Amino acid sequence: MDVKKKREQLLKAAENAINELIKVMDKKMDLQEVDPEKVKISASAYRLAMEDAMAMMAKVEELESMDKEDTKKKQEFFGVEGRAK
Length: 85
Known about the structure:
Number of helices: 2
Helix content: over 70%
Mean pLDDT: 77
Strand content: under 5%
Order of helices and strands: HH
Radius of gyration: 21 Å
Low-confidence stretches: none
Distance between the termini: 36 Å
Shape: rod-shaped
Largest sheet: none
């Protein structure tokens, strides 16, 4: 299994999920036409969608920084001379 390829697929899927959560949060509701109980449920769903999106964004940023660190470590390696004691 190619871990790097799977990580990239996971990041793309997470970005798509975040975009879908944003679409859910952008929907407008008319408070005059909706039952108060439905407004309460919708508000709870919006809050949950926001929390999920923020958590996913944090994880995506963490994974992307891991990729950058991996690339940086690969570029910094010049040999074993510095490690031999």
